[in-house]
Design a protein that fits this description.
It is an enzyme of class 1 (oxidoreductase). It holds the Pfam family Aldedh. One of its GO terms (biological process) is thymine catabolic process. By secondary structure, the protein is α/β, with parallel strands linked by helices. It folds into 2 domains: 266 residues, Aldehyde Dehydrogenase, Chain A, domain 1 (3-Layer(aba) Sandwich), CATH 3.40.605.10; 194 residues, Aldehyde Dehydrogenase, Chain A, domain 2 (3-Layer(aba) Sandwich). The protein has 16 helices and 25 strands. A 7-stranded mixed beta sheet has the order 15-16-17-14-13-19-20, sandwiched between helices. Strands 10-9-8-11-12-22 form a 6-stranded mixed beta sheet, sandwiched between helices. Helix 6 links the parallel strand 8 and strand 9. Helix 2 runs antiparallel to helix 4 and helix 3 runs antiparallel to helix 7. It is globular and about 90 Å long.
Length: 509
C-alpha cells in the first residue's frame, strides 16, 4: 500500500501541523510501516475547536431538514465508497475485510436511523398551565463537541458520535485512534465531496494532550469517548472541573452463559463469532463462557473442535477468518495474560501463541484462538479485560450462580444466555447486572434505533450512544413559559371593547 502521511482536517482543509512530531503507522497483518501519524500540538487542537465554534452559529440556524439532507448525502457517499472505506479498516486496523465491510454497512444504518432526528428532536407543550399561560420545551444544540475513538472500530464510533451531534445542530472535533486513522482520511474527503460546510466536522490526531486542550475551552460543550475505563474516568474528571458533558464508554468482561437446554449448534456458531470476531478486540466479545455441569464437557469439546478450524492470517485474505491484533505490544500483552492463566492454575486446552502463518505474515501481530478451562472467578484472566482471542471456561452451578458472578464484576457491558427455557430467559434479562443482554446471540449489540452502552465501570456518566440517548446527550432542553394576553383595547380574542365584532388573529403577526 502507498505510504500515507496522515494529516489533520481543519475548517474543510487538509493541513499539517508544523509543531507536530510523527509516529509510524503499521499494517498489523505484515508489521510493515505504511505511514506516519502526527502527534499534534495543543495549538492545532485549539485551532480545530475554533473552526468548529466559528461554524456553529450558521450550522445551528440551518433548517433541520437541510441538516438531515447532509446526513442523507453522507450515507450515500459511504455506500459509493464502501469498498475503499472497508479496505482502509482492513489495512491499518486489520479487521478481516468481510467484517470491515460489515462495519461500514452498520454505520450506513446508523446514518439512516439518525435521519429520524426531526422526529426525535420534537419538544413538548403543555397548554393552560394557568389562565392564559402555556408551557413549551424545545431541544437545542449546545455548541462544539469533541470525540475520541478507539482503534478497534474506526467507522462505528464515527457513526455513534457524528451523525447525532451534527444532525442536532452541533459542530464537532474528532480524534481518531493513532493506530487506525485511515478510515477518517477518506471520510474527510467525503465531507468535501458532499459539500458539508467548513468547520462543521474537524479531524485532529495526537496524544492525550490534544484532548486535554479541550477541557478549558469555553467553546467545548462536552466530550465523547469509546475506550478503556481508566481513560473514561480521566476524561470525566477533565470535563467535570468545567461542567462539561461527557459520554464515555469504557471496558468490558462479557459472559456467555450456556444452560443445559441450549441448542449447542447455535451456541457454537455464535461463540466463534463473539470470541474471535475482530480478533476478540471489541467491547462485546464473549470472554467468559459459563457452563452448567450437565453440558460442561460436551461444550468444551465442541468449542475446542470449532476453534481449531478458525483460520488466522492476513486481514485481506478472503480465505481466513481472523486477522491479527492491533500492535506488537498488544500481542505481547495478550501472551502475558496466557502465561498468567497457566501460572494461575487454569487448564490451557488450546494455545493460540505462534499460530501457523504464511511467510508474508511472519512479522504480523497474530494470536490464535486460545481456550482455558477450569477457570475460577478469582483468577486474573477471569477478571481483567484481555482484549484478544482468549476465552475462559467456567463451570457454574446454576443460573443464580452466574448471575451472582456477573453482579460482582467491576464491568457491566453485556452478557448473553443460550437457552430454550422461557423462565431462564426472563430471569436473565431481568437480573443480569449489565447494560445489554442477549438471548441465543453471541454479540448483544443493539440495532441503531436503540441505545448502546453498559453500566458500572463500562459506562462513565449517564448517556449511552445512538438512538434517543444520543439525541438527549447532544441537546439541551429550553423551557418557555408564555402568557397570551389580548392586544390593547381587546377584552378577549375577537371581541373589541367598543363592540366591534371584526375578527383579529390570536397568532402573532
Amino acid at each position: 500500500m502507498e505510504f500515507t502521511r496522515v494529516k489533520n482536517f481543519i475548517n474543510g482543509e487538509w493541513v499539517e501541523d508544523p509543531k507536530a512530531t510523527y509516529i509510524p503507522l503499521h499494517n498489523p497483518s505484515t508489521g510493515e510501516v505504511i505511514g506516519e501519524v502526527p502527534m499534534s500540538s495543543t495549538e492545532a487542537s485549539i485551532d480545530a475547536v475554533k473552526a468548529a465554534d466559528a461554524a456553529f452559529p450558521a450550522w445551528k440556524n440551518l433548517s433541520i431538514g437541510k441538516r438531515v439532507g447532509y446526513l442523507f448525502a453522507l450515507r450515500q457517499a459511504m455506500l459509493d465508497h464502501q469498498e475503499e472505506l472497508a479496505v482502509a479498516i482492513a489495512t491499518d486496523q486489520a479487521k478481516h475485510i468481510s467484517e470491515a465491510r460489515g462495519e461500514v454497512m452498520r454505520v450506513v444504518q446508523i446514518f439512516e436511523a439518525a435521519c429520524s432526528i426531526p422526529t426525535l428532536m420534537q419538544g413538548e407543550t403543555l397548554g393552560n398551565i394557568a389562565n392564559g399561560i402555556n408551557g413549551r420545551v424545545t431541544k437545542e444544540p449546545l455548541g462544539v463537541f469533541g470525540g475520541v475513538a478507539p482503534f478497534n472500530f474506526p467507522a462505528l464510533v464515527f457513526g455513534w458520535f457524528i451523525p447525532y451531534a451534527i444532525g442536532t445542530g452541533n459542530t464537532f472535533v474528532y480524534k481518531p485512534s493513532n493506530e487506525s486513522p485511515l478510515f477518517m482520511q477518506i471520510i474527510g474527503d467525503i465531507f468535501n465531496e458532499v459539500g458539508l460546510p467548513k468547520g462543521v466536522v474537524n479531524i485532529i490526531h495526537g496524544d492525550p494532550n490534544v484532548v486535554e486542550a479541550w477541557y478549558d475551552r469555553p467553546e467545548v460543550a462536552g466530550v465523547c469517548l469509546v475506550g478503556s475505563s481508566p481513560t473514561a474516568k480521566a476524561i470525566a474528571q477533565g470535563c467535570g472541573k468545567n461542567g462539561k458533558r461527557s459520554m464515555l464508554l469504557g471496558g468490558a468482561k462479557n459472559f456467555l452463559v450456556v444452560m443445559e437446554d441450549a441448542n449447542m449448534d447455535v451456541f457454537i456458531e455464535n461463540f466463534i463469532h463473539s470470541a474471535y470476531g475482530s480478533a476478540g478486540q471489541r467491547c462485546l466479545a464473549g470472554s467468559i463462557i459459563a457452563v452448567v455441569p450437565e453440558v460442561y464437557d460436551e461444550c468444551i469439546e465442541r468449542m475446542v473442535e470449532a476453534s481449531k478450524k478458525v483460520t488466522v492470517g492476513d486481514a485481506m485474505d478472503p480465505d481466513i477468518y481472523m486477522g491479527p491484533v492491533i500492535t506488537k505490544a498488544a500481542k505481547e500483552r495478550i501472551e502475558k495474560y496466557i502465561e498468567l492463566g497457566i501460572e494461575g492454575g487454569s487448564n490451557l486446552v488450546l494455545d493460540g501463541r505462534s499460530p501457523e502463518l504464511p511467510e508474508k505474515n511472519k512479522d504480523g501481530y497474530f494470536v490464535g484462538p486460545t481456550i482455558f478451562t477450569d477457570v475460577t472467578p478469582c483468577r486474573t484472566i477471569a477478571k481483567e479485560e484481555i482484549f484478544g482471542p482468549v476465552v475462559s471456561v467456567m463451570k457454574i452451578n446454576d443460573l443464580n450462580d452466574v448471575l451472582g458472578l456477573i453482579k460482582e464484576q467491576e464491568f457491566g457491558n453485556g452478557a448473553c444466555i443460550f437457552t430454550q427455557n422461557q423462565y431462564y430467559t426472563e430471569k436473565f434479562i431481568a437480573d443480569a447486572n449489565v447494560g445489554m443482554v442477549g438471548v441465543n446471540v453471541g454479540v448483544c449489540a443493539p440495532h441503531p434505533y436503540l441505545p448502546f452502552g453498559g453500566i458500572k465501570d463500562s459506562l462513565v456518566g449517564t448517556n449511552k450512544v445512538q438512538g434517543k440517548d444520543g439525541i438527549e446527550f447532544f441537546t439541551q432542553n429550553k423551557v418557555a413559559t408564555i402568557r397570551v394576553t389580548p392586544p390593547e383595547g381587546v377584552a378577549e380574542c375577537g371581541t373589541r371593547v367598543d363592540g366591534d365584532k371584526s375578527v383579529r388573529s390570536c397568532v402573532a403577526q
